[in-house]
Write a structure and sequence with these properties.
The protein is α/β, with parallel strands linked by helices. It is built from 12 helices and 14 strands. Helix 2 runs antiparallel to helix 9. The chain has 2 domains: 199 residues, Periplasmic binding protein-like II (D-Maltodextrin-Binding Protein, domain 2, 3-Layer(aba) Sandwich); 121 residues, 3-Layer(aba) Sandwich (D-Maltodextrin-Binding Protein, domain 2). It comes from Pseudofulvimonas gallinarii. Keywords: Signal. This is Phosphate transport system substrate-binding protein. It holds the Pfam family PBP_like_2.
């Protein structure tokens, strides 16, 4: 009897110790591009810390809006904060890793590569037939996500036009990146975007850019030009701030980075070699699109980032950008400048053609640009 009571007491004590050591559950939502790289790391973190990280990918804006409303804890985003979207500049954008923007086509498409300028001309509508880039005589169907300022779309429009809300000439609009990947598999004339981490099980072919294939090695050494940062986005005043900070710091540990590398991501680095590598890539991207040489001061600003996810100091005043540079937007809580890893992803502000207008409704909200087709319907 005494032994049974003693065993029960030990069991109760162990249960209490387990509960006391457990961490808060985290709910994460965001775009497919970012979530794919974070899901497995989240599962590893949950196992090690006896907690749960619920990852529900859908879209960038849905994730960030959920964070702003306090409905979820963390958003995963493939873009920096957007000044036109209320409240985003007050959130923490913590850079986690780098991924490649990959343009995908149907496996039957004979085109194997595009230049950065050709990609830009497709978005402009200047190239609208595959025969103009070495393919068959067929219209180019450009696929895009319909939400304004979606992560991947926002980043590529910033790269190509210096404006994340540029009114590109889109053929078909979808709800998220996953639907684009499925759509491209069914349309021999289509072209859409995904990321390197999202290519695992898709029956599509990725195009080389400037003769360079997207791999984790070509992203890591700067040869692949269309590279974007992935962020964790959260509120500095979240009730789960301590747990979120712990998770953000975990993402920069060797064990977490090994998981990301296995997903073909390049972990973010805060060191001089890393910054130099990506400023050189930014300069090459500018050169490929016919721009003028970029001032070294502008390039330097393109590669800085916050040092700690736990920093809660108010943002410092952003320095005035050099001509042609993307203005810095600092996120409260981590003092993350959007011109930091974000500007590295944004690329040069191209002089010609001028950046297109952002569509706004009567109430000042942002609307998606006009299109030629929506989903699988005919052109509109």
């Amino acid at each position: 009897m005494v032994l049974r009571r003693f065993s029960a007491l030990l069991f109760s004590f162990a249960a209490l110790s387990w509960a006391g050591a457990s961490f808060a559950q985290l709910n994460l939502r965001g775009d497919y591009a970012s979530a794919r790289g974070i899901t497995e790391v989240g599962a590893l973190y949950a196992r090690q810390h006896r907690t749960t990280v619920n990852v529900r990918p859908f879209s960038t804006n849905a994730g960030i809006d959920g964070v702003l409303k306090g409905e979820i804890d963390i958003a995963a985003a493939a873009r920096p904060p957007i000044a036109a979207r209320a409240g985003e500049s007050e959130l923490v954008f913590w850079p986690v890793a780098w991924d490649a923007v990959v343009f995908i086509v149907h496996p039957s498409n004979p085109v194997r590569q595009l230049s950065v300028q050709q990609v830009r001309d497709i978005f402009l509508g200047n190239l609208d037939n595959w025969k103009e880039v070495g393919g068959r005589d067929a219209p180019i169907d450009l696929y895009s996500v319909m939400g304004p300022y979606d992560g991947l779309e926002s980043s590529i429009r910033q790269i190509l036009f210096g404006n994340p809300g540029y009114m590109a000439k889109i053929d078909r609009l979808f709800l998220n990146q996953h639907q684009i990947e499925v759509g491209v598999q069914m349309d021999p004339d289509s072209i859409g975007m995904t990321t390197l981490a999202g290519l695992d099980k898709q029956r599509v072919r990725a195009l080389d850019i400037e003769g360079v294939a997207a791999t984790k090695d070509t992203v890591a050494d700067g040869r692949y030009l269309l590279t974007i940062p992935l962020y964790l986005v959260y509120r500095a005043d979240s009730p789960k701030a301590a747990e979120i900070t712990r998770f953000a710091e975990f993402l920069r540990t060797p064990v977490a980075e090994a998981v990301m590398v296995n997903k073909r991501l390049v972990p973010h680095r805060d060191n001089e070699d890393f910054r130099t590598l990506h400023t050189q890539r930014l300069a090459r991207l500018w050169e490929r699109m016919g721009g003028e040489p970029v001032a070294q001061a502008t390039l330097a600003r393109a590669s800085t980032s916050s040092e700690s996810p736990a920093a809660v100091a108010p943002p410092a005043e952003a320095a005035a950008p050099a001509p042609g540079a993307t203005p810095a937007v600092t996120a409260t809580g981590a003092a993350v400048a959007a011109a930091a890893p974000a500007a590295e992803a944004t690329g040069p502000a191209v002089a010609t053609p001028p950046a297109g207008p952002v569509m706004t409704a009567a109430d000042g909200s942002v609307e998606e640009p006009a299109c030629k087709r929506r989903l699988f319907s005919r052109k509109c």
